[in-house]
Specification:
about 80% helix; SlyX; mainly alpha
Length: about 70
């Protein structure tokens, strides 16, 4: 291979490497954002679960506390 061919190949490889570094950084940032979104969703789920438990305990009686239906 000539010196010019080697330089062309080296330039191509450097360009690919720079592009790959950019893609890796972009993907890493996206993963970090998604992780934060997932954490927020988990917190919201926990809050909703807690609120549902509070509401369900206050408005639903246990079976033995319920009066029988009118047709009995």
């Amino acid at each position: 291979m000539s010196q010019k061919d080697l330089q062309t190949r080296l330039d191509e490889l450097e360009t690919r490497l720079a592009f790959q570094d950019d893609v890796i950084n972009t993907l890493s940032e996206q993963v970090a954002k998604q992780e934060m979104d997932i954490r927020e969703l988990w917190d919201a789920k926990r809050l909703l679960h807690s609120q549902i438990k509070d509401v369900s305990h206050s408005s639903i009686k246990r079976e033995e506390e319920e009066s029988p239906p009118p047709h009995y």
